[in-house]
User: Fold these one by one.
Assistant:
Number 1:
Amino acid sequence: IKQKTTDKRYAKLLNNIDKEIKANDKAADIYQSKAKKIAKDNKLNEKDKKSGKSWVDKIKTGSYSIQEVKNSDKANAINEYIKWYDKSQNAKKTANEKRKEKRETTRKALDSTIQNNNNKLDQMKAESDSIQSQIDIKEARGSKANIQNYKSLSKNAKDQKNNLEDQNSTLLKYQKTLKKDSVEWYNIQSQIDANNKSIGELTKSQIEYNKSIREMDIEHFKTLGEYLDNIKSKYESIYNFHESQGINKSNQDIADI
């Protein structure tokens, strides 16, 4: 499965979870408002002189018995309050469960992205090793690496750096889902630190590759200059020879020789 497809699947899943969280939070607020209105209208917040607790307090702690209520209207109000209070609590519980599911799903999505980055990084490292091997073989045979070899190494180093920077961005997002200073939090931080170290080493390598490219460019122009000087010298020698022999040759005639 391509990473884009996986990312879309997780994005859709997280979007649906967010909708469920919002829906349950909204429902909890509505149910809580109904319960509060019933409590206010029926004075369920008034504390009992004997126990020092109101009916709302008793219901929230579960320390009540509806059978002790003799007034039927009061009993009906209490039952109605309990109904909406329970609905509110259930909606809050569902919302919190969905928040936990969101954290777990987010971690899975980020894990998938990190693994994909690692796979790409392994391919880049293998490619870099292959290019370096080609250079080593050339040098073992007495020849030199060409500019394209070093341009490929420089681009590869840049790609690896970009990969590690993207990976660190994802790791930081993952770290935010963890409890700070937990073992897993520090494990992620260690990975980020290791990536930063690798980024520094790759930056140094890229500078060295680019330096080699510049030096090879200079060497190339020097060689080209020497080549042109040789042509010029040859041209002048032929021209001088013909002139000494009294032969009148045009520049084109000499160039054709």
Note: Residues 72-140 form the longest helix (69 residues).
Number 2:
Amino acid sequence: RQDVGDVAMRQSAYVGKDTSVQNVTSLLNHFDKVVDNGGELTDAQAKIASQLINSRHLTRTLFENGTETTKHAVDNISQNTVKQNSTFVEKTQTETDSVWVDYGYNQSTLRMSGLKGESSDNTLTVGASKMFGNHIVGVAASNKNLSWRESFAGADKSVRTSGYGVDAAYIYNLNGYNIYTFLGFDWLKNHNFTKANVNQWSMGAGVNKWFVINKDGTLAIQPNIAVQYVHTKSADVNTTDTVAIRDLNVKQLVASI
């Protein structure tokens, strides 16, 4: 057989193709050793080997059997949490002594090196915050539904993730400067080829302050500096009946001004 990388190199590329090529090359080399040593492939192993070796568009076959779409979906979950954390802190600070409801919807389209990605994310959050002098405490619970879809060379793959999350925040006002910290945890489930649990926790801190820029006080700005850490961990995920991801972890450290 021809080298996987040589064949795929002549065809169009997508984000993650190099990783797929490395994984498939290692897999086929393992199959070769099994056969060379007098062994036999299982039905599942023979199926994936046949798909790869007989494929007329190897790069598309790599995409269909690859793991990158699931990895990108987990990246999307992490990025969505960064946005939600910022909204949660803002609501905690502005909706004091009340119960509030926030619905967030985000839809975006990305084109990445031959691959088209689309996200559609819905989050419904119910929260409450209470002020005690210079102190504000906030809590919230969320229902999340996130979808990630990718297409390449006529092939489509999608991953849906849903579940619940809880958040807590503390804000202290020091001479007009709002110093805050927050913590969150999500219990999610990946609805892929098979279901897999996804646990995510996040924490962060920041500071902001209102500055009035006209005499009558009707115009003001609030600069905000924050840093967040988000850790998303998925259980073993079967992306097809023959391909799985083991111990998928995504860690993000995000600073914003």
Note: Residues 1-12 have pLDDT under 50 and may be disordered.
Number 3:
Amino acid sequence: QALWLSGRQQEALAALDRLHAREPEQARWWLYRGRYLLSLGQTIAARDAFVKAQQARQASLDYLEQVGAIAGDAEANLAAGDVSAAEQALAQMQQRAPGAFGTLFLKARVALARRDYPAATADLQRALVERPGMSLARLLLGASLLHQGLLEQADVELSQLLAGDPENVDARNLLASVYVARNDIEGARRILAAAPAGAASHPATGWMMGSLMLRAGQSAEAIGMLEASVALDPDNADLRLDLVRAYLAAGQPEKARQL
């Protein structure tokens, strides 16, 4: 854990390999591996690790760790887009820890993945009553309200989140999306332009601003913003597609073809 927290991820994983070799039936090592791999975005390998943690000798995990293995499995499945498997993990959570906050929050996230926005909204509102300072719950609530077209409510939730955390890129982009849904493109641009320096340099902020410029017919300006964002996040296929659209709108089909 010390290696991981100090940013030495590969050394931490190598240390886990040595622990596995010494105690192959110890479920705790699988649990840690799942957490580490999930944070690295290796969702399939993380999911396998969480399953092995649950299948290993359960006496080696305490109650909270057993619940954590189930929750980690659900998180990995959601990240991998396997909603059915996440629902199975949720069912286990509801059996093992029916009144836990984590179970309620997971239920809301599964509802979001199913696009059952009214159910997700109700669960997230309950979660925020219990933990009003939980930024992720408020962010997801804003997204759920936006999907339902409840723009004023989404504005309230996301504005409250941004007031306490102006560096929150996701909240700022979602709030800009609320303005776009109102057909207030200039309002959306003002929201993005007000981002602090750290958030303004994030590729997602540049992507959103570039998309707004493209929508407003300002393809030359959009290209500059989108090219900068692609340079920061070159593996984002949706971002690259927006840049292709900007090239085509600006009459640069060769660049679009190359991209």
Note: The CA atoms of residues 154 and 234 lie 31 Å apart.
Number 4:
Amino acid sequence: YFSNEHPKKVGNGGWLTYECISTAIQMNYDVTGYLVTQDDVILSIHQIRDLPKDKIWYNSFTRQHIGDFTPGKRVKECLRGICDVKPLWYWWSASFPSIIKVLKRLHKLQHSDLLVKQCYQNLVNLTGGEHRVIIGYSDVLYIPKHLAQKARHLYKIFREELVFIEIATPMVLNCLQHPREQYHFTGIALWEGSYRNMPWIFFSTNIMNDAFYLHPAKWSYIDVCPDFSAHTNHRNFFCYEVLSWLHDKEGDLRKIYNMGF
């Protein structure tokens, strides 16, 4: 999906980039499904042809977190079924108003919308409570065609309440297909620490043969990087390592394009 709008306008600076997913689904092309990646992901494309196209692809549920937003109580994270963990994720507090709104709306809509009713009950069963939400990194995912319109319908509800993508996406995907029925890929996620801006340390042909993705790897850092001494490293990484690796996989690319993604 390509948009003429400025990225910050389309996805509210990345907060609501699932707008692009919904718009692509609305186009209703004759495709197998919808593969979504963020712009700072290196995808191990040669693995795609062997993955199940009728299942959702997402992170393992063990890598997701549940937050408890029971009215009148402070926000807590749940661990092993016990919700008494002090929340460490920054977006819990930043997302609090939108989370409360969407939970109330889902609770109300379940009485008039069959899909929402099924979704709501699935989430309650999965999280163990009516006032709980799921967070999960959403830089790479895949939605099969047979679930796409349902996903679009649900995403619209979360979009109208301005729910952050890393809350909206695991909520939508896990309510449409139970985690045990999904395909869970492995990847390299450099979320914190000094290595976050040094993706070349973790990149090699052997590593990428096993890992489905590497994140983050920001093309913009070729010119503008928080560590100004790293411009040359980023340029060399993308120009000589990543592009060379992709060129070696050129035949795989042609096969993937022919699949109808």
Note: The longest helix spans residues 231-248.
